[in-house]
Write a structure and sequence with these properties.
By secondary structure, this protein is an all-alpha fold. About 70% of the residues lie in helices and about 0% in strands. It contains 8 helices and 2 strands; from the N terminus they run ββαααααααα. The chain has a two-stranded antiparallel ribbon.
Length: about 230
């Protein structure tokens, strides 16, 4: 019984063909395509407003050199947001519950920000490993600690996103199973658990949006350190 709770996190396949790529590319089909008309529909206007709002929030802490990353960070934000929200629908698969996928997104972007800093301002980037005014006996230990904290940043990004979404999906499945099991014998308790399930679903919608924003916001902060 306990193993069935984790079946929702297994990668789906059909005739031996993995369907993860379809799950990753499907959110792009939901975005309305833009045309050359001056007057667009309300959905396109809402889409442009949201993209503009997200871009402003992500680019606010960056200088003009970091604005070159606007397209990458905004696209990643919308991609993660749609995948997280679609994963809350019944009988769907959430690719962002896979640690391998989250690390595949976090590690190259973190490495790109690090290499950008080492290329443009190597002394300042290396200066982050040793705070100013450090006593001489503590220099080797602090360099080791700061280097370790720098190297685990992509791991922290991937684990944070995976753990939050996985925990939310497990809680929803556990409470929904309890609601269905209690309904024949204790309808009043079942209605109470149903109310808790609805509140938890609203909370998970907020968590899905916040985690997508936090993932990209931390990348922008890492970029700020290196530009």
């Amino acid at each position: 019984m306990n193993l069935s709770f984790f079946d929702q996190f297994s990668s789906p396949s059909f005739l031996g063909i993995p369907l993860v790529l379809i799950a990753m590319t499907f959110p792009a089909l939901l975005l309305p395509s833009l045309d050359n008309r001056w007057i667009t529909n309300r959905l396109s206007t809402l889409q442009l407003w949201f993209i503009n709002l997200v871009t402003k929030q992500l680019m606010m802490p960056l200088d003009k050199k970091g604005h070159k990353w606007a397209l990458i960070l905004t696209s990643l934000m919308i991609f993660l947001l749609l995948i997280n929200l679609l994963g809350l629908l019944p009988y769907t698969f959430t690719p962002t519950t896979q640690l391998s996928m989250n690390l595949a997104l976090a590690f190259p972007l973190w490495l790109a920000t690090l290499l950008t800093g080492l290329r443009n301002q190597p002394s300042i980037s290396l200066g982050h490993l040793l705070p100013e005014g450090t006593p001489t006996p503590l220099i080797p230990a602090l360099i080791l600690i700061e280097t370790t904290s720098l190297l685990i940043r992509p791991l922290a990004l991937g684990v944070r996103l995976t753990a939050n979404l996985t925990a939310g999906h497990l809680l929803i499945q556990l409470i929904s199973t309890a609601t269905a099991a209690l309904f024949p014998t204790m309808p009043a308790v079942s209605l109470l658990t149903l109310l808790i399930l609805l509140l938890l679903t609203i909370l998970e919608v907020a968590v899905a949006m916040i985690q997508a924003y936090v993932f990209v916001l931390l990348l922008s902060l890492y970029l700020q350190e290196n530009t």
